[in-house]
Amino acid sequence: MTAGIDISGLSDAVRPQDDLYPHANGPWLEQHEIPADKAIYGAFHALSDTAEQDVRAIVEKTVAAGHPDGSEARKVADLYSSFMDEETIERLGAEPIADQLALVRGIQDIGDLVAALGTLELQGVSSVFHTWIDADAKKSDEYIVYFMQGGISLPDESYYREDTFAEIRTAYVAHVTRMLELAGLPDAAGAAERIMELETRIAAGHWDRVKDRDVTLTYNKLDRAGLDELTPGFDWSRWLEGAGVPASAIEQIVVREPDFFTAAAGALQEIGLERWKEWLSWRIVHDAAPLLSKAFVDENFAFYGKTLTGAPELRERWKRGVGVVESALGEALGKLYVAEHFPPAAKARMVELVANLVEAYRQRIDALDWMGPDTRQRALDKLGAFVPKIGYPDKWKDYSALETDPADLFGNVRRSVAVETARELAKLGQPVDRAEWKMTPQTVNAYYNPRMNEIVFPAGILQPPFFDLDADDAVNYGAIGAVIGHEIGHGFDDQGSRYDGDGNINDWWTDDDRAAFEQRTDKLVAQYEVLEPAETPGQHVNGKLTLGENIGDLGGLSIAYVAYQLSLDGAEPPVIDGLTGSQRFFLSWANAWSTKTRPEEAARRLAIDPHSPPEFRCNAVVKNIDEFHQTFEITEGDGMWLAPEDRVRIW
C-alpha cells in the first residue's frame, strides 16, 4: 500500500490553513506549462492524455493487423485510415460538401428550406434547433423526442449581446468571411455580416443557461397539434419528409424552450429566404470544416481554438483522428480498451467504494436536522433505488449497419451519423434500454442520469490520481470517492432532487422542506458569486449557473469523508510521511483539481460551464466542511477559515 500523496509536491510557501489549493499544488503549478494544443490542463486532462495514447495504440495496432471486411476492427481501421489520408483530403478540398451546398442553392421557398433543414440534420449539419431521443422525464419507462434551441455558432447567447464579447463578435464575422471564401461562396464579406445579424436574431430568442437548467420549466409536453400551434408557419410535414422521420415520431414531444421555437418560426417567415440560405450554407461549411482540407482546418482552429480558447497550436492529426473514431465507433474501441486496461480487481474495489458512499449518504440523510420525516423517507427510497454502473456496459453497441471506406472520410462520418440517427429512432415505441451507457469506457469522466437514477463511472477515470488499487484508502476516498459522492449528489442537487427514484419529475418534497433546502442553496450561491478567477479580473463565477455542480462537490466530498471513516471500521489510520489519514484525504481532493487555464478559456467557461473553476472546486468546498477545519486546526484569522454559522451543509 502506497501513500498516494507525493509530499515533494506540497508547497512550503503556503500553509493549508491559509490556502489549500496552492499548498497542495504549488510546485506543480509553478513547473507545468499548458501544452500548446490545450486551453486548460490538469489532473483530468493528463489522465485523458494517457487514455488517448492507449486508444491510439489500439487503433494503430488494428490498422496494422488487417481484419476481415465488415468486422468492427476493420471499421475502426478504415475510419482512422481515412482521416490520416491527408493526400486524398487535400485533393478533394471542398468537394465533399458540394452536394449539400447544391441542395441549398436549389431551395425555392420556405417549405424547401424546412425540408432541407431535415435532410441536412440527418447528415450531421446542425439546424435551428436540436433533437434527440431519451426517456420521458415524467414517464421514464417510455422514450420520447426532445426539442431544444439551437442555430448559433458562438458558444452561448450571451456572446451576441454582452460588451465583454464585442471583440469576439468582430473576429467571428472575419472568420465566417474567410470560411465562405474558402468554400467559393459569393459575396463572402457581405454574407458574413448578414449571417451575424441573423444569428443575433436567433440568439435573442434563446433562454439563458440559468433558466435552461430548470427541469420543470424545460419540460413542456406537446402533441402534434400543440407543436403546430407553437410554431405558426413551420411546415413540420416537410421537415419530417426531409429528415426521413415518420410522423409518429412527433405525435408526442417535449419542447425545452417553447418561446424560442415560436420566435424561430417567426424569424423563418419574416427574414428573407436568401439570408436563410446563406446561413444554412455557413452551417454546412462550419460543421464540415474539421474533415476538409488544411485551409479549412487551420481557419476553423484560428477562431474556435486560438481566439475562443487561447490554445496556440492545433492538436496533432493522430489525436483528431482518434477523436473521429471515438465519435463513430466509441464502444467498439471501448471493448478493446477494457480488455487491456481495466482489471477485474478494479471493478471489485469500486463496488466496495460505491457501497460505502451510498451507506454514508444513508446515514447523513437519516440524521438531517432540517428535513421532515416524510421527505427524508422519500430521499432514502430514492437513494436505495440508485443503480451504479462501473467500468463498461454489460451490452455493447452493434455497429454492423455502418459501412466504411478507407478513402472516404466525409462519407464515413456522414454514414455514421445516419446509423446513429436510425439507432435512436428505432427506440421509439420500445422499452427503455436501462443497460445503455451515455459515455464510452475510455472516457475520463463520470455522470448521473436522473431519468435512470443511475451513477456511471467509465474505466477511463478509474486510474491514478483518482483511483489507485495500490494506494491508501484515504487517497482513493478523497479523489474517486468524492467523484462517486458528487455523482450521487446530483440526484439530490437543486434540479436532480426534482426527480424521484423511478427517474420521473415528481415533487416528493413538502413545502417546508423545499424552503429549508433552498435557504441553504441560496447561501451557497452567494458564496460562489463573489469568487473571481485570477485569469479573468473583474469577472465572477455565476453562482446560479454552477449551483448544481457546487452542491455535487460539497455533498460529494462531505459524504466521501464519512465513507472513508466507515471503511476504517473503527481502526486508527496510519500516519504516512507525516500526514494523518484525514490530511491525506483532503490533500487528495486538492490534487485532483490541480489545473492551469488560459485566460480566454477561463472567460469562455465562466459564460457557459456549469462547473466552477478548479481552484474554487477545491477551496470553496472544503471551507464549508467542519472536518477540514478540525483536520488542519484552522482558526479564525486563517485564510481558509469560515465561521461555523456561515458554513453550508446540505446533505
Automatic annotation (TrEMBL):
Residue ranges annotated for the Peptidase M13 C-terminal domain, each copy included: 445-648
Q: Name one Pfam family in it.
A: Peptidase_M13_N
Q: Which cofactor does it need?
A: Zn(2+)
What's a Gene Ontology MF term here?
metalloendopeptidase activity
Q: Which residues form the Peptidase M13 N-terminal domain?
A: 16-393
Superkingdom classification of source: Bacteria
Keywords, alphabetical: Hydrolase, Metal-binding, Metalloprotease, Protease, Zinc
One annotated Gene Ontology cellular component of this protein: plasma membrane
Instruction: Answer yes or no on keyword Kinase.
Output: no
Q: Which CDD domains match?
A: M13
- GO BP terms: protein processing
What family name appears in the similarity comment? Belongs to the peptidase M13 family.
Please give the name of this protein. Putative endopeptidase
